[in-house]
Specification:
233 residues; alpha/beta; Rossmann fold; globular; binds adenosine-5'-triphosphate; nucleotide-binding; ATP hydrolysis activity
Length: 233
């Protein structure tokens, strides 16, 4: 479970994030929408403990990330817009390497199975990542999240630049993670995916979460209208 409690990030006098309060429970997919500069990545980076809050707390499974940096990192997996993988290693070798950095150890066959479950075409498992599309690299990210048995998934625009098929495949994987009880917080510009895949939606503007609601409570048309109205005001 993720909780932001009055979470604030200031750069000088500028508030990149202003007293954010939100909860993402097990099995929730909380999508953060908002224009460029709204504070979405700042929120994700605070949960990752990449940056320090100026006020408030980012809490993962009851632990303040600034006080329990190591323990909270073990609970989460992070997939950014461009996942950093070693281009000269295969998908399998990358997964093996990154699993080895944690405390989980898997036989090659298990890693292959994780990649297949994450939708990677079997004939690409032993090909170099330099030959992968962006969608395939994101699937390696999901395989790593599965391998790490992450209970929290932090995603920063993971489907940006993916074609609709790849984006749809990624959403299916998120829904599988949701069924396992993973709590997901995703920054995205994709209103359609937020409505389609998210359980909850938050709209941010200038560092403030101005709306949050269950995605089932709005139609896609109403979501788009609401979003555009906020962005024009
Ligand atoms: N290190 C920094 N120093 C000063 N200002 C910063 C710094 N990092 C981010 N900001 C500012 O904080 C605000 C929020 O940025 P953030 O990256 O969280 O936005 P975002 O909603 O993720 O935008 P995008 O959709 O473009 O990724 C922006 O105005 C940004 O310029």
């Amino acid at each position: 479970m993720l909780q932001a409690i009055n979470l604030t990030k200031k750069y000088g006098d500028f508030r990149a994030l202003n007293s954010l309060n939100l909860s993402v429970n097990e099995g929730d997919i909380f999508c953060l929408l908002g224009a460029n500069g709204a504070g979405k990545s700042t929120t994700i980076n605070l949960f990752l403990n990449f940056i320090n809050p100026s006020g408030g707390k980012a809490v993962i499974n009851g632990l303040d990330v600034t006080e329990h940096g190591k323990a909270t990192k073990q609970l989460l997996s992070y997939i950014p817009e461009n996942l950093m993988l070693y281009p000269n290693l295969t998908g399998l070798e990358n997964l093996d390497f990154f699993c080895g950095l944690g405390d989980k150890s898997y036989a090659k066959g298990q890693l292959e199975e994780l990649l297949i479950q994450s939708g990677l075409q079997p004939d690409f498992i032993r090909k170099r990542v330099s030959s992968y599309s962006k969608g395939m690299r994101q699937k390696v990210g999901i395989a790593l999240a599965r391998a790490r048995e992450a209970s929290v998934l932090l995603l920063d625009e993971p489907t940006s630049g993916l074609d609709p098929k790849a984006s749809n495949e990624f959403s299916e994987l998120l829904l599988e993670m949701k069924e396992k009880g993973v709590a997901t917080l995703m920054a995205t510009h994709d209103l359609f995916r937020a409505k389609d895949t998210g359980t909850h939606i938050g709209i941010m503007k200038e560092g403030v979460l101005i709306e949050q609601f269950a995605s089932q409570d709005v139609s896609f048309q109403d979501l788009e209208k609401m979003y555009l109205k906020h962005m024009h005001n």
